[in-house]
Amino acid sequence: MQGQLYMGIKKTAEGKRTYSTIKQPKAILPRGCKPSCKKNKQTLCDEFTDEDQQIIFDGVWKMDWNQKGVFISSNVDYDKPAEKKTIAEQSRRK
Q1: Would the N or C end of the chain have less CB density within 10 A of its end CB?
Q2: pLDDT surpasses 70 at 92
Q3: d(CA 94, CA 86)
Q4: Contacts of residue 28, Cβ cutoff 8 Å, sequence gap at least 6
């Protein structure tokens, strides 16, 4: 369950991005949820089999950055915050 070596991006002093260092492959961590994780119904620990995880892992690492962005945005739910915090014009502190 390993990815492939990849090139890391660093910013130069001028602010340009360059591929500079070779990064180690990413890997899927072994299964073994904590009891607190299993109690939480939002984590979906048991929803995916090892084969499902491997298929998703391989698919994501074969994508380019644009495809990864589309994949993430299509699989993440966005909830608006309950309250919007604003910066007060004048401090109420004395």
Answers
A1: C
A2: no
A3: 20
A4: 1, 53, 54, 57
Q: Which domain holds residue 12?
A: 6-74
Residue in the block written with tokens 């309950």 = 82
pTM across the whole model: 0.53
Residue 2 has pLDDT above 60, yes or no: no
Residue written as tokens 């109690």? Answer: 39
45 within 8 A of 38, measured Cβ to Cβ: yes
What sections of the chain are H helices per DSSP?
35-39, 50-62, 65-75
Structural domain includes residue 92: no
Task: Report helix, strand or coil for 11.
Answer: strand
Q: Which residue has the higher pLDDT, 80 or 40?
A: 80
